[in-house]
């Protein structure tokens, strides 16, 4: 098929989760389909060049931030989600006649915030990839974020829920995890599952000589669920661990570190803020354990997939483990409160053979269920379903 693949941000190999997912799907499916990428954010020449080999064309249409801010302010008193209002007029910026002249057979749109674009391409088959249930994400954030953003999240959650329901009623939609599908709807119009993946060649199984006194947290360090998780862990879990293991260090690895994490690392010498790195593999490989103590957020976490693929033992909150289909005591250790998480990590530190056994089974799970090739096959089946309607 000839596919128009529309995203907010340019698909990119090492960036935010939605960009990684889009890049991996385009790369895999370009072997059997002719794909044009269209995104609405600015992008450099290097980013375009990395995507170009997999596309017939790469179209980038940067949008006015001032106009977007005006639309968001106007939407505060209405019922439209602010994130949808941000892109409500994106379709009017497209040269629809030129795009229709390219002979596209299917339009794929990523994220609920771009849902208004779908209407511009009738009667073509259309698929919307929610990635995850943003309404669930916002509801969880509202529970833990005490700042103005928490108030906005509480405002957004029911509005996004209404949009997700309406879009899934009209179009074929996808999400990455069963919990997100259930959060949107559970009937015949429920989103199809297209799971996240990991590049198994880039994350080969490696259990060398790990540092017994080091644990690592990897992720976008400017994303609220990650900031919340790291701060909670530092305040509630790390002091318990250090009573038993005084030399233990926590390393925070990832892009866009929030000021809260900068302050945390500056105040506590046993916390190292590594920040953005070209490759996370060395930091995962040398750690005794990787943690994913998320309380907010939604979807499937790349931090879990990458650690499990590489062979680093994982201690995770229940919601993150369940999204992966990972079983406590088989693929990782699950803990939700400070005492349980501290106990789980101390077990791994004291019993390296336990960590090795978990790591082997976790790698097997990722190989069987979470390659990007398998994820692309799941999306391709959805495209075929939409095209057949």
SSE inventory with pairings:
Layout: E1 2-7, H1 17-29, E2 34-39, H2 45-51, E3 57-60, H3 65-75, H4 82-85, H5 96-100, E4 106-110, E5 126-131, H6 134-144, H7 148-170, E6 172-175, H8 178-184, E7 192-193, E8 211-218, H9 224-244, E9 249-253, H10 259-267, E10 271-275, H11 281-285, E11 287-292, H12 302-310, E12 314-316, H13 318-324, E13 333-334, H14 338-350, H15 352-369, H16 372-388
Parallel strand pairs: 1-2, 1-4, 2-3, 4-5, 5-6, 6-7, 8-9, 8-11, 9-10, 11-12, 12-13
What does this structure look like?
- With 389 residues, this protein is α/β, with parallel strands linked by helices.
- The protein has two domains: 2-197 and 371-388, Glycogen Phosphorylase B (Rossmann fold); 211-369, 3-Layer(aba) Sandwich (Rossmann fold).
- It is built from 16 helices and 13 strands.
- Strands 3-2-1-4-5-6-7 form a seven-stranded parallel beta sheet, sandwiched between helices. Strands 10-9-8-11-12-13 form a six-stranded parallel beta sheet, with helices on both faces.
- The chain is globular.
Structural class: alpha/beta
Side by side, the strands of the main sheet go 3-2-1-4-5-6-7
CATH architecture tag of the largest domain: 3-Layer(aba) Sandwich
Which range best describes the helical content: under 10%, 10-25%, 25-40%, 40-55%, 55-70% or over 70%? Answer: 40-55%
Quaternary assembly:
single chain
Instruction: Report the strand count.
Output: 13
β-strand amount: 15-25%
Q: What Rg do the Cα atoms give?
A: 21 Å
The average pLDDT is 93
Tell me the span between the first and last alpha carbons. 15 Å
Please describe the biggest sheet, giving its number of strands, its sense, and whether it closes into a barrel.
7 strands, parallel
Q: What name does the CATH topology of the largest domain carry?
A: Rossmann fold
How many domain regions?
Answer: 2
Low-confidence stretches: none
CATH C-level class of the largest domain: Alpha Beta
| Fourth CATH level, the homologous superfamily of the largest domain | Glycogen Phosphorylase B
